[in-house]
Write a structure and sequence with these properties.
Elements: E1 2-6, E2 14-23, E3 27-36, H1 45-58, H2 61-66, E4 69-74, E5 79-87, E6 94-103, H3 114-134, H4 142-157, H5 170-186, E7 191-194, H6 198-208, H7 214-218, E8 221-225, E9 234-237, E10 257-260, E11 265-268, H8 273-287, H9 290-299, H10 308-316, H11 321-349, H12 358-367, H13 373-383, H14 390-394, H15 397-408
Parallel strand pairs: 1-3, 7-9, 7-10, 8-9
Antiparallel strand pairs: 2-3, 2-6, 4-5, 5-6, 10-11
Length: 409
């Protein structure tokens, strides 16, 4: 078992973080423990993690996939535990758990606040998975864990209680909403939203309509009906209790997305021929044109290899046709997930004047793994759909500050 020390600001409710591996054949093993400077007493990590890892064998696979997070309260010991399960990328029968031990007597973290951290845990878990996959030493995760705890502490001190911007918990916001928007964009904004909750369906309609052109919005309907209207781009319907004939969608000349809010399902039309033909036209007429590539090199010298668009083009040209669909889905999903998190971080880490300080900006970019300015501009502007002040605060903050000073003079 590897141990390390973490130093963050005070007051600090965190006591320790453990990384545990569980295997159905060999049991579980504590791989690493990160202690905090304010730890005052020894904790039986073995016993507590045995309780945590019992959840892996208790849940079936479907339940486990939808509920990777956990929370335990031990009031008699003044201890809270929260964290995430995540599967091994290289070993199919192995599961890991990253567990945070928190002093409950500090009264800083409550059960209602735990869901807020699931969004940020998703990024931390991704980084830990990559470290495990690469075979690096577990201590390589120390900076990522320290950064997460630092950000979490700042959010707690800011007085945040629960995520309320969207009628979803933070973990669903990470995965379900990003799939909705990614598929909506990928199928040319042709989307049917099905739900028994009319108000929730209209909330999704309002959000997805932000990505429509004026012409597409005119060909959309917010009317809550029991039947799909062919030809519309975006529409909402009640549950199809009598069965929905797929032939009704054959009249579409473009791919479509079906979102079932009650079951949390996102379904795409099986015919991707139109997307394929459009992609091939772009490849033949644009991406593979020597003249266009030369113009790209001359007119975009400031773009690095980390540029979102250029990176995606390189990846698309290196995979077969069957993998392009999955690659685009993952690409859109990653951008949208970061945009959601960016909106939450900027709102809760801004100063009293509303300006994001340079050191805070660097913390946000580091947490979201944004290293290129062009990536920041793309993700920041998409994040503005969730909170229109994001781009102004994070990207153009200095310009606004200069304008305020200039106006005062």
């Amino acid at each position: 078992m590897i141990t390390s020390k973490i130093l963050i600001g005070k007051p600090n409710p965190f006591q320790a973080v453990t990384l545990v591996a569980s295997n159905f054949q060999t049991g579980f093993e504590i791989l690493g423990v990160w202690n905090f400077s304010n730890q005052t007493e020894e904790v039986d990590y073995q016993s507590y993690n045995r309780i945590v890892m019992s959840g892996v064998t208790r849940h079936d696979q479907e339940h486990f996939a939808k509920n990777p997070s956990f929370f335990f309260d031990f009031p008699e010991n003044k201890l809270l535990l929260f964290g995430n399960f995540f599967p091994s990328i290289t070993e199919p029968n192995q599961t890991y758990a990253l567990t945070f031990f928190v002093h409950s007597e500090e009264n800083m973290i409550t059960k209602t606040q735990i869901p807020y951290f699931h969004s940020f845990l998703a990024l931390l878990i991704h980084n830990v998975q990559e470290i495990i996959k690469s075979g690096e030493h577990f201590l390589q995760a120390t900076p990522h864990i320290t950064l997460f705890c630092t950000i979490a502490l700042k959010l707690l001190l800011s007085g945040v209680q629960q995520p309320t911007k969207f009628p979803l918990t933070a973990d669903k916001c990470n995965f379900f909403l990003q799939h909705c928007l990614a598929s909506h964009l990928q199928t040319q904004m042709t989307t049917i939203i099905e739900s028994k909750d009319e108000n929730l369906a209209k909330t999704y309609f309002d959000f997805l309509s932000l990505f429509l052109t004026k012409e597409q919005l005119n060909l959309s309907s917010k009317l809550y009906t029991n039947r799909v209207t062919p030809g519309l781009f975006l529409q909402i319907v009640s549950p199809q209790t009598v069965g929905f004939p797929p032939s009704d969608l054959y009249c579409y000349d473009r791919p479509w997305t079906w979102i079932n809010l009650d079951k949390e399902e996102v379904i795409q039309g099986p015919d991707q021929s139109i997307q394929t033909s459009v992609y091939q036209d772009i490849m033949l007429k644009f991406l593979d044109s020597p003249q266009m590539l030369e113009e790209f090199k001359l007119s975009r010298p400031r773009f690095s290899d980390n540029c979102c668009a250029f990176k995606l083009v390189q990846q698309l040209k290196s995979v077969n046709d069957m993998e392009k669909y999955i690659l685009c889905m993952d690409f859109f999903g990653d951008i949208i997930r970061k945009a959601i998190l960016m909106a939450e971080l900027v709102e809760n880490m801004k100063s009293e004047s509303g300006i994001i300080q340079p050191e805070v900006k660097q913390e946000i970019l580091s947490l979201l793994n944004i290293t290129d300015k062009s990536d920041l501009i793309i993700i920041g502007n998409i994040s503005s759909f969730f909170d229109q002040r994001v781009a102004r605060r994070l990207i153009y903050g200095r310009r606004d500050l200069f304008n305020q000073i200039y106006a005062a003079v």
